[in-house]
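Cross-check.
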Amino acid sequence: MTSVHRQSQVARFCLIVVGVLLVAGYCFGQPTVSLSPKDGPSTTTVRVSGSGFTPYAQIDIYFDSQDQALAVADGTGAFSQIAIQVPKPAVPGSHWVTVAERSGRFVKQEIFEVHVNWTDFHTKDMRRWNAYENVLDVTNVGKLSLVGRYRTGAEVRSSPAVANNVVYVGSDDGSVYALSGKGLLWSYQTNGAVLASPAVANGVVYVTSGDGYLYALNATTGTLLWSYATGPTGQNYPDLGSSPIVADGVVYVGSDNGNVYALDAGTGTLEWSYTTGDGWWLDSSPAVANGIVYVAAMDNLPTGNGNLYALDASTGTLLWSYFTQWTASSPAVASGVVYVGSCCGVYALKASSGALLWNFPLSDDSVHSLPAVASGTVYVGSTNAVYALNGATGAVLWRYSRAGWNLSSPAVANGVLYVGSGDGNVHALDASTGADLWSYHTSRPWPDSSPVVANGLVYIGTGNGWVYAFGLPKELAPQPPKRPDPKTLRPDFNLKPLSTTASN
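Predicted model, tokenized:
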């Protein structure tokens, strides 16, 4: 009896210990999960970390309903930096990352917001090409309809920038506007027409004005952070029609006094300036790639001559220049090649040396628009047509002539080319064939604003002062899946366990 009694006491003691451990685990093991980053476009790599799970537990990490990784917690119930990837078909909106112990004991869910930003005129990582668009394509773009618009006080020649689902755009009324689906968030008044496109980086909006200043504004509130005058103000101030670009903490911008400026993005302190010597009309927006700033300038003489310049991004030292004749186009850089338009056609130059690779001549035409480059094809608008050129040879792939007088720069996304034209329409063309898929009449010809495409929406400004947003009707627009019920998720038993130190 004594032995039995002792065994009973030991059993009771063990049950009490287990119960205490379970309670302790429940009280002190409430899981937390962090995602880095918390938002971004499809195909983004997301690092998932967690704590408060059962020590040494196997933990499945799902994106929506897809099991992507199997983590193994350490002795404290934590794991860190486990990589998963946002699936390419993941449409804009809120998606769910579910972190679930295979035992079913602990589950934690966090939101990942899928969206893409178009942060400046070039979209420096895309060359006016949105490689992440997965809502609009050649099969459904014909169903685009007007989903919103906002009236400014004058013509909108500025092209929009989109960051975190907010649209930033300038107007000839001198204001910069921040717009959302609910309307105006804020506006900031400058002392000159805002012709150029804003650039958005690290919560700051950079924009130029006809008053000769570059402004840095808080992207959330519109509060002025700093401004920089590119020359004496007054009757002969230098106009600023160049769109700024931000790279590695530096803002680059051109001025109609013929200078290129590099400013510290945080403070507005001048780091360097370069005088082109071509006089006025540096409306070209710089492009930055591989530590080089590319910008075109033309003089204000009757000859209208000009050059494309390549400058060291750190020092402003001239690396090379190329005579492009009369040039109002901004350069685009892709795969080691600089593409730029001029009065007499399109040039393709070797980015490292400025050596001419090819020239597409236009005898009775001129190119004002920034070329868009996607999948080895260069798209450019001229005063008479829109062209698709082979990026390696300059051979014409197709020509669309209905638009005419294209000051607007094209944008490419998911097999569709978007462009504003002199017939007063915004056009969507098949990027492979040039076939007209959709158009919308904005009621005023000669639009200078260039379209941008982000998150299944097309934005453009017009000559009658409106900023338009086009999208699919609600019943046709794809929606992200609902929050998954963890009980319905099925683990992938083929996944190999990853320890807490995994950093793949």
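Residues 2-28 form the longest helix (27 residues). The chain is about 5% helix and 45% strand. Passed to J.P. for a second look.
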